[in-house]
């Protein structure tokens, strides 16, 4: 056997007939300072690279709340390497393995690894930490320790709560660069999961391992010195379970939005119940949205959950605006003249109350009989004092007739006379006629409420189709 300390003192304990010694006695002789330096790498003299093979057995994965951006991992880490200085098959052929715990770890060389994305970590165990080391007769060392660690996981929450997250455990060499020590995953099953591993909010979709080399320098203080350092990474993909969010957020928010549509079945002048219902649904939804937002970090980009809540708030707010609109129309006193009873003319007449008069003036200008007529709006009478009913207007018209005296004739004509209604013999006239309809403000308000009962649910269904297509197909 090659000794790395040829100038050892003569009183260095002998390894001959090693089978007669107990394990502790033989280990104290094998790893004695006179022949073994635990500060030196196993192949320090020859200049070869030390290959450390790693494997992990995962007991437990607990992703934390999204605002913490971390997860907890319980695992068993195993490192395997060969130290020729500890080969004892020639001196103790009957001995199978040397097994020890923390006391053995203090006697031999162990690679110094650390987790670069670690928030906190600790060894697991009771009085004696769960560390196990075994040395084979050929000098192969197997180092095992159970650990629990809280590791950072920088999540992308743009599609929350329909997101998939990739979290990893990064193992890197601290003291020795890649030219001296190389980390490698075991070829067969480098990472194994416990059969009792269960996740609550997530489901484990996939996991994989990879090896890399990272750059260490004085600027970022990533490693103990400058150079390239070997690194291992174990990455697992988690899919968030949406059942909790559907039952606690999405379905209740749909019900709150549908509740805001009840105002369309109440009369437009029922201000107290419609305002109470609108404000209560708005406050209830804001409370629901804020309780969900507390579990998320304050990021600069917009999330899928925020798009949903903004859309629902828009529908609830639109229902309140619709009530204010129809209530304003309901309180008007003048009837509205419509050329046709459809959405275009009704909305125009409500937004511009003098629209009917403008339409009438256009007809008067286009009519051959009234081409030289002029109406004086200053003689318009108030609707409440007119015996013909509200909205009944008289017009002063000046007609020019070709006569010898060339004197003008002044007559007064009502709205119905000008529009072709109420004149004797108007039915048999060949002049073009336009039929005008009148609606009271109360009828218009009721008409808008009836259309809103259908329009709002259809738009909300369309919003759902677009939203769920986005979260599941994009």
From TrEMBL:
Pfam families: Neur_chan_LBD, Neur_chan_memb. It is a multi-pass membrane protein. It comes from Danaus chrysippus. PROSITE patterns: NEUROTR_ION_CHANNEL (PS00236). Its main location: membrane. PANTHER family: NEUROTRANSMITTER GATED ION CHANNEL. GO terms for cellular component: plasma membrane. Residues 25-241 form the Neurotransmitter-gated ion-channel ligand-binding domain. Residues 363-387 have a biased composition (Polar residues). Belongs to the ligand-gated ion channel (TC 1.A.9) family. It comes from the Eukaryota. The keyword Metal-binding does not apply. This is pH-sensitive chloride channel 2. Residues 250-468 form the Neurotransmitter-gated ion-channel transmembrane domain. One of its GO terms (molecular function) is chloride channel activity. Keywords: Cell membrane, Glycoprotein, Ion channel, Ion transport, Ligand-gated ion channel, Membrane, Signal, Transmembrane, Transmembrane helix, Transport. NCBIfam families: LIC (TIGR00860). Residues 362-390, 416-436 are annotated as: Disordered. It catalyses: chloride(in) = chloride(out).
């Amino acid at each position: 056997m090659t000794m790395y300390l040829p100038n050892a003192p003569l009183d260095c304990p002998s390894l001959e007939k090693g089978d007669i010694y107990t394990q502790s006695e033989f280990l104290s002789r094998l790893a004695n300072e006179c022949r073994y330096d635990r500060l030196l790498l196993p192949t320090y003299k020859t200049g070869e690279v030390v290959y450390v093979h790693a494997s992990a057995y995962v007991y437990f994965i607990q992703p934390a709340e999204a605002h913490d951006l971390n997860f907890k991992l319980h695992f068993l880490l195993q490192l395997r390497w060969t130290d020729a200085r500890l080969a004892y098959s020639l001196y103790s052929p009957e001995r199978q393995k040397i097994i020890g715990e923390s006391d053995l770890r203090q006697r031999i060389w162990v690679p110094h690894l650390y987790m670069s994305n670690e928030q906190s970590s600790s060894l697991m165990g009771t009085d004696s930490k769960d560390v196990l080391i075994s040395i084979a007769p050929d000098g192969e060392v197997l180092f095992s320790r159970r650990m629990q660690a809280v590791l950072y996981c920088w999540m992308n929450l743009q599609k929350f709560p329909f997101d998939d997250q990739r979290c990893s455990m990064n193992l890197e060499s601290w003291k020795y660069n890649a030219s001296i020590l190389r980390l490698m995953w075991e070829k067969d099953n480098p990472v194994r999961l416990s059969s009792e591993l269960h996740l609550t909010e997530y489901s484990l979709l996939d996991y994989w391992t990879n090896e890399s080399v990272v750059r260490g320098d004085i600027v970022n203080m990533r490693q103990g010195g400058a150079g390239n350092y070997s690194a291992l990474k174990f990455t697992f993909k988690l899919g968030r379970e949406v059942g909790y969010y559907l039952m606690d957020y999405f379905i209740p928010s749909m019900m709150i939005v549908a509740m805001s549509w009840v105002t369309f079945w109440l009369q437009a002048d029922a201000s107290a119940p419609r305002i109470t219902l609108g404000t209560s649904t708005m406050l209830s939804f804001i409370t629901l949205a804020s309780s969900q937002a507390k579990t998320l970090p304050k990021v600069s980009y917009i999330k899928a959950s925020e798009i949903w809540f903004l859309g629902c708030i828009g529908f609830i707010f639109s229902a309140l605006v619709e009530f204010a609109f129809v209530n304003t129309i309901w309180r008007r006193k003048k009837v509205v003249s419509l050329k046709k009873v459809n959405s275009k003319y009704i909305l125009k007449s409500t937004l511009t109350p003098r629209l009917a008069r403008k339409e009438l003036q256009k007809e008067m200008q286009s009519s051959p009989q009234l081409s030289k007529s002029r109406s004086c709006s200053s003689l318009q009478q108030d609707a409440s004092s007119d015996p013909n009913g509200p909205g009944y207007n008289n017009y002063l018209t000046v007609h020019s007739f070709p006569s010898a005296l060339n004197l003008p004739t002044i007559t007064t004509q009502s709205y119905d006379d000008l529009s072709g209604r109420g004149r004797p013999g108007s039915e048999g006239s060949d002049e073009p006629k336009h039929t005008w309809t009148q609606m009271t403000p109360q009828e218009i308000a009721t008409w808008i409420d009836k259309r809103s009962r259908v329009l709002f649910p259809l738009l909300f269904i369309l919003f759902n189709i677009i939203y769920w297509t986005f979260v599941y197909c994009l």
